[in-house]
Amino acid sequence: MAGFGQRYLITLNRYKWLALAAFATCAGVAVVIGWQREPLPKYLAFGSLTANRPPVTFSATASQIQQQGTQLTVELLLADDVIKAVAEALKSNPTDIRKWAQLGQATNGINVIYRDDDAERAKAIASALMQGMIQKSLLINRARLKAVVETTQKRQVEVKKSLDDAQKKLAESNQPAERQSLEQQVANQQALYEKVQAALSDAEAAQAEIASSLGVARPPEVFPNKAPNPFLVISGIGILAGFALSATSILIVTFFVKNPQADAFREKLLTAYRHRCPLTGADADLALEAVTIEPKMGAVKATNGLILRADVKKLFEAQLLAIDPKTLKVLIAPELSKTIYNELVGKPLQLPTDKASRPSIEALAAHYRRCAWVAADGGAVKDKTD
């Protein structure tokens, strides 16, 4: 993990321009967007509408339309005609009204919110919007009722014609079997006509009972607007996103971009140890990996590294295998004593012929001390030849 952290810092130092560019882009875009956002007005007027419960209605049609009217959408309630009527009544800008008006679904109705820098104007516009929505609901209900009446009247004419035709055929028929069938047809048409007539009467009665499906549940009240400044919020998010993008971009580069320094370090170690693991004797380059003995000293000089077989390298980095700085022999953690790695215990580290490339005793000692199991020489698996 320390090795990766070191690689990350090296990559950051090399590609700091990329990190700065990513941060500047995110932060700059956020600042521009935040600057363009208009600050929220100082006051907020809040009121609510609920389903209107008119006096007892005797018309099923009226009750049905009233119920349908409670399902109105935001688009209908804040339609252009409502906004225009409120703007004309209060001599306000319709664009501003649409911009700062907000509707929200509540458990028992609709919340109406309006923001303005003037508290009285905010309350007046919110109240006018609520009354406009109530009136809009009434107009919609009346339009629906009118459509029902017209449809029922048209249906009544069609059914009356069918009844008259059936009665005429019955009057002209002299065949008993045919008359029996026609009598049944007349009876069915008569029943249907009476049903349509009843529906028409109900719809016409609803004209006197129809009302708005909405009513005021809570008159508008004005509160100070405590919402945070959008410029600060957006800018803050952009700065955080910039830091995240910078860190992520360097992380990606660390993973996927080849590190020339690491390659040079490995080549030094391969040359120093003659392309052979000094602990196992493995001599296949593809199986050998460079390991930094003391991460703080960096992967630069051969004296701070070893070239080990990949599995042995992992144990060394995990501090489950160490080199005794006094004897330069292998020690392993107790949990490895029953594994094949027990064969490495006591093996001497094969040193490079070039003394300048031999591992630093101080670095080996630092790694040795980090292995908790060798504290006070009490937990190590000793040289099996001792």
From TrEMBL:
<keyword id="KW-1133">Transmembrane helix</keyword>
<feature type="transmembrane region" description="Helical">
    <location>
        <begin position="17"/>
        <end position="35"/>
    </location>
</feature>
<dbReference type="InterPro" id="IPR050445">
    <property type="entry name" value="Bact_polysacc_biosynth/exp"/>
</dbReference>
<keyword id="KW-0175">Coiled coil</keyword>
<protein>
    <recommendedName>
        <fullName>Polysaccharide chain length determinant N-terminal domain-containing protein</fullName>
    </recommendedName>
</protein>
<dbReference type="GO" id="GO:0005886">
    <property type="term" value="C:plasma membrane"/>
</dbReference>
<keyword id="KW-0812">Transmembrane</keyword>
<feature type="transmembrane region" description="Helical">
    <location>
        <begin position="231"/>
        <end position="257"/>
    </location>
</feature>
<feature type="coiled-coil region">
    <location>
        <begin position="179"/>
        <end position="206"/>
    </location>
</feature>
<keyword id="KW-0472">Membrane</keyword>
<dbReference type="GO" id="GO:0004713">
    <property type="term" value="F:protein tyrosine kinase activity"/>
</dbReference>
